[in-house]
Amino acid sequence: MPTIWTPRFLITAALGAAAVAVVTAIPTAIIDNPWFTRMTPVYADQYFFWIGTSLLTGALLATYFGGLRADRASGAGAAGGVLGYLAFGCPICNKLIVALLGVSGAMDYFAPAQPFLGALGLVAAGAALSYRLRALRRSSCQIQAPA
Description:
Helix content is 71%, strand content 0%. With 147 residues, the chain is an all-alpha fold. The chain has one domain. Helix 1 crosses helix 2 (44-63) and helix 2 packs across helix 4 (95-140). The longest helix is centred in the C-terminal third of the chain and has 46 residues, at 95-140.
């Protein structure tokens, strides 16, 4: 059975992870940049969710370059990315959360829920990646003709 862990797949996954990391780190200001200012400090768990989300979604993106069409996993992968983004973003910089809960609600209710959102996001992205990898393995199996 051919393997999917080819150099092309690994390079694509690494480039995807780097792209996701940069695209999510700039607006959340998890890394300092001149365009956005974070109003709350970055905690260690937020770095964990940022890196984990980037790695899993980068690998998930690489599976879409393997010739397999979009499927049920794309929804779980998107949900994992959004939940991960919410997990490491600044609670009071998120306009939607502040509009729904107010600044004190964002800090009192949303901020404590962020680690749970991050864990749920990693589970969703991991499940989507697992599903896609199994589907790629099945599609790469070749049936041998009887001799």
